Amino acid sequence: MAKYFDVHPDNPQPRTIAQVAESIRSDALIAYPTDSCYALGCRLGSRSGIDRIRTIRKLDDRHHFTLVCRDFAQLGQFVRIDNDVFRAVKASTPGSYTFILPATKEVPRMLLHPKKKTVGVRIPDHVVTQALLAELGEPLLSSTLLLPGEEEPMTQGWEIKDLLDHQVDAVLDSGDCGTEPTTVIDFSDGEAEIVRRGAGDVTRFE
Questions:
Q1: Strands across the sheet containing 97-102
Q2: Within 13 A of 201's CA, how many CA atoms are on the CB side?
Q3: Residues in the chain with pLDDT values less than 70
Q4: How high is the pLDDT of residue 114?
Q5: Cβ neighbours of 34 (radius 10 Å)
Q6: I need a labelling partner for 153 at 20 to 30 A (CA). Which of 32, 109, 177, 184 fits?
Q7: What span, in angstroms and rounded, lies between the C-alpha atoms of 183 and 160?
Q8: Contact (Cβ atoms closer than 8 angstroms) between residue 125 and residue 96
């Protein structure tokens, strides 16, 4: 059964956040809120976490996983980014965007797109997620909590607990979060390609 953590949306309890971070370090798979919607998350190098996310969402090996980063400095360790792209990404973070970029050697091979050698990265604008990332000290490997056959992602912590009780190890609930997935922008070829229109405004990328 998944542990259920009720977290204050504006002042997340440090003890609770520390508990969740420790469980992630111990290979837990969690469901957690972001500024776009709920996501599944595990530690960066977790093979079992990746396998469990693939199973829950029925994903193939072409799916882009996302590294959810605390800030731009952390993001820069995991992707290669030139000056023009740097300015565009910097101006849009933190926020409800995922950017697909060429990965550095810091990214485990099992996370890379098999042909492009790219990975998704994002910096969320969400107090609870940011507190968790600060405590964890590294990015969360994540994927939108969008179940097979569903058109919209899950947005209620208690519903996730009921439905995925035996498939995840913990659920963080801080009340309302976003209801749309992130907007996905592919910069892997240097030019902005809008892959998915979501919560982030696409105007600057058109």
A1: 3-6, 170-173, 30-32, 39-42, 140-144, 66-68, 118-122, 97-102, 183-186, 193-196
A2: 7
A3: none
A4: 81
A5: 27
A6: 109
A7: 23
A8: yes
Query: Going by C-beta distance under 8 Å and a sequence separation of 6 or more, which residues neighbour residue 15?
Result: none
* Residues in a beta bridge with 157: none
pLDDT tens digit sequence for 8-27: 999 999 999 999 999 999 99
Residue type, 178: G
SS (H, E, C) the chain: CCEEEECCCCCCCHHHHHHHHHHHHCCCCEEECCCCCCEEEECCCCHHHHHHHHHHHCCCCCCCCEEECCCHHHHCCCECCCHHHHHHHHHCCCCCEEEEEEECCCCCHHHCCCCCCEEEEECCCCHHHHHHHHHHCCCEEEEECCCCCCCCCCCCHHHHHHHCCCCCCEEEECCCCCCCCCEEEECCCCCCEEEECCCCCCHHHC
| Contact between residue 128 and residue 41 where contact means Cβ atoms under 8 Å apart | no
Exposed, middle or buried, 191 (CB in 10 Å: 0-12/13-18/19+)? exposed
pLDDT of residue 35: 92
The pLDDT score that the predictor gives to residue 113 is 83
